[in-house]
Amino acid sequence: PDPIERDRPGPSPRRRANRTFLELRTPLSGLAHEAMIRDDTATALATLSTLTAPPTGPAGKGRTRPTGTQPTNTELITSHSTNTTITGRSSAMPDNAKPLRTGTPTTATPTTDTSTAETHAPRTQATATGTTGTGTAGTGTAGTGAGGTAVVVGGGGAGAAVVTALRRVSPEQLAHACRLGLSAAGPAALWAATGVRPLARALDALDPALRARHDHLDLLLADAPLPGSLRALARHEAIAPARTMELVARRVRATLGQLAHADDPVLAYRVARDADTAVLCALVIAVTGRADGPPTVAVTAPGEVSVPGFPRSSLADPDGPWQRAFPGAVELGADLEVFWARVASDGLRVPTAWLGRGGWPALWQRSARR
Hints:
Helix content is 46%, strand content 8%. The chain is mainly alpha-helical.
């Protein structure tokens, strides 16, 4: 009789993981390192460092307390840091999550993030006097963080320690940290910082043939447990900080969306004064897409896509600020289908707490000037 033909077994998961690691570690680690030492990454890490320590001085130029009964930043943060529950992140933090460290991180042994089973570079104290500094894994660009602290960006310098510390905190601690960042840096700077994604940039720069051969690399950008074939790659000393920055950026944006829905007074106070159109549009889209959010007022008639204010804008303009804000609004928690349905039935809506004297036209004009 003819021999029975059997399908050859595919490679084992361990062999697939080893092949992925061996083929990608050199090109992806190099691209990730280059992305982490860019100037915009240094600026973003300096802004994110304001989430790990309270402001040490005045709120800054243009952020003085107005006359009247408006509470100070310290009063707002103190009174609302413990009584607002933030929920909704799928990957719960462990019960023994560590509190945020203030100031420059100190030396410690490498630890493991129990939510993703990845090891990270050790925390290393670093200082810098110019535009460059030395981290654990090499030389990187330095920026200025809260209170003038130098934030060194390298494979394992203080910049990586900043995002590692933020990655380890609980949702409630991250909500408090976001209030600190909003007060110290403002919503426009914090939004821009969370838009810097070194790992996504590195993946986009990979050779297309290599990217096509490993079509599951986008899982590195998700805030979820990784398959075994990607874990060793995610633990690489040059790739781990970039992925940590990606996850922290997503978590910070999700937390900002939850603060908006909770009608947080710190967020409202800063949006009313320091928002630019990028963060304002994203937040308004996220709030409009939920009927259970804070008290709102309509700024357009039901079904109207032309938004009042100067400069004029339209929800339907593919090159306008509203549609450019759609991806960021989704990271805030927006459902775009619900958003369009709500615009059709109730109009575009803005939280009442964000509007001061002059209403929506004044808020939009201030944001457009930034």
